[in-house]
Amino acid sequence: MDLQPVINSPGMWLASSIMVIVVVAQSFLYLREGFRGAAALGIPRSECVKGLRAAMITAIGPSLAPVVILLALLAVLGAPTTWMRMNDIGAARTELAMSALATKVYGVEIRSAGFDLKTFSYAIWGMALNNAGWMVVALIFVKRMNNAIKKMNEKYDPRWIKLLMTGAAIGLFAYLWSGSLIRGGGNLFAGIVSFIAMFLLSKYAGKYPRLQEPALGIAMLIGMFAAAAFF
């Protein structure tokens, strides 16, 4: 059975668009609440826009990496499902891995001759259930985490709490980066070049705020292009 007419059908586009519309609506709601919260804290709107612009530019670098895996998802799951999953989650590698794992439960390898409509449904359910856990955790515990931080700020010096949160973020990114460094080769080279580029941009771009905003994205791109050129 040729699945392409089914997985790329207008019905799939319609069904997939529901989640995308929800994500877009949530984005606008979060943005609105963010601006309201900033106003209540006395943060100028111009600073919020500056941070938003910096985040958008910085996201360009990480968005390039999943493109190759995105093509694989398109071939396996079709354009509508891929469009929906990338807007919902964005982790192309994880989505591809979970869809492959789910089809193995059914006893069929992904993209094999036995990949039929039922296997396709297993792949979709596998991706959905994989994300359900952390979504439920976030729904239940985010508010409690916020209350815990408030209590910590009341009990201890807020400056130390801020340093603790910063250290946790640095540790997280260091952990994510360490996997690439251990593999060596192009990954290590890209990481070192990106680090040097970020250091130089941070040190010499102080007089140019517009250059500081996209610094992380620029550093990532420099590292990727350098690794692609030499490896």
UniProtKB/TrEMBL annotation:
Ordered alphabetically, the record's keywords are: Membrane, Transmembrane, Transmembrane helix
This protein's source sits in the domain of life called: Bacteria
TM spans, by residue?
A: 12-31, 52-77, 122-142, 163-182, 188-206, 213-230
Q: Name one Pfam family in it.
A: DUF5058
Respond yes or no to whether keyword Zinc-finger is given for this record. no
Name this polypeptide is given: DUF5058 family protein
| Source organism (scientific name) | Acetonema longum DSM 6540
